[in-house]
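Hi R.,

As promised, here are both runs. First protein below:
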Amino acid sequence: MKMKVVGVIGGGAAGLCAARHILANNDMVPVVWEKSSKVGGTWVYTPQSGKDDLGYPIHSSMYKSLKTDLPKEVMRFLDYPFPSGESSFVHHTEVQKFLESYAEHYKLYPHIKFGHYVEEVKPVMKKEGPPAWEVTITNIESKKTYTTTCDALLVCNGHFSVPKIPHIKDIEKFQGRQSHSHDYREPSSYEGCTVVV
């Protein structure tokens, strides 16, 4: 029997969990495309904001001193707990380590293509059965683009990567600096300023 290829867009918590359960099914194999060089998705901290060195949008909203607002006991995977420790509310680096450990434990790394950016997804209709999926990917390092077909596809690219900016009447008249919390990293650039949140 031919193995079914299941594409997974994103190597964050949802993408890793999806890949782990795809691997547990003996007739399926995952292929995970992750834009960055690490697993973790939004938990991968960078001091940069806006766009990265290659012009791709920065996915993460992590700031340097962030601790979780949910206890780790709630954030864990049912089959893989966080390491025991004193605090339930952990620094973002602990969540990152947890996700790396999860990927290692379930042997997910061989199935992850780091530095690969999904450009486009299209359904491929068949005469019988569900559609397949044509996925166009760019290898960020080589800048080469290729297309592959998957039997199924899971989009696990998160919902915190695109900031929601409400319309505020006459905001364009404000002459000061405006930024979204998605781009906040640390407080030093605000020293001596009056800040409205």
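And here is the second one, sequence first, then its structure tokens:
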Amino acid sequence: SGRLAVANDGKKRIHVFGPSGVCLRRFGERGDAGNDIKYPLDVAVTSDGHVVVTDGGDRSVKAFDFEGRGLLAVREGFCLPWGLDAAPKNEVILTDSEAGALYRLAADFRRGELKKCQMIRSRLVSPRAVAVCQTSGAVVVIEHLKARGPGKGSTRVTIFSAQMDLIGQMDSFGLNLVFPSRIHATAVAFDKEGRVIVTDVCSQAVVCLGKPEEFPIFNPLISHGLSYPVGLTYTANNSLVVLDSGDHSIKVYSS
């Protein structure tokens, strides 16, 4: 449909935009009712058109239709659900930052029925952003490593196959040895060709790191006009959408 869901810290937590940029709907007030969202950390849209949100406020995963009606809330066993991305077959892959784990959640969102919620990877370090390749099923996660000393810490890009075997891994220090600048990754996506794309808040850029089998290469896609890019996705027509919290805007780039 070309609709885009954005999580934000306003009075209504989820904004749904149409392809032209018009805000079609706002929902998810802060509170304790069934349709409320206390503190959204990430949002994704499933293939059958449902909006799934990780709520750090009550440590849950919540699903809504595009009208904002609450359909499902999953609270079982999460410490701090953070990033999520829609996978094929109405599944969602999500990170639990506090537990250091990756989960696969399957549901019939229309009926509000949870089918399974299964941990598929553990021993990660503060995993946050996550993306699923729609063609290969590969999964890429951004881990946030603790600082050794007074610095801000660094990030690590970790790629798994569809079977959850480790394919590639590189932290900010390792990437800095390969690339001209230090990368602090905040968001991640796969493009239509299966390449890993990250936002880098250090250089205020969007960078392509290549396909999992060639990771890492360094190809800056956007190097001007961003101030603090924190969100990233591709639309069905292969436009690149960047959420820029520096100037509170959504920026759309052609392929």
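A quick note on the second one: Residues 120 and 141 are 13 Å apart (CA to CA). Let me know what you think.

Best,
J.
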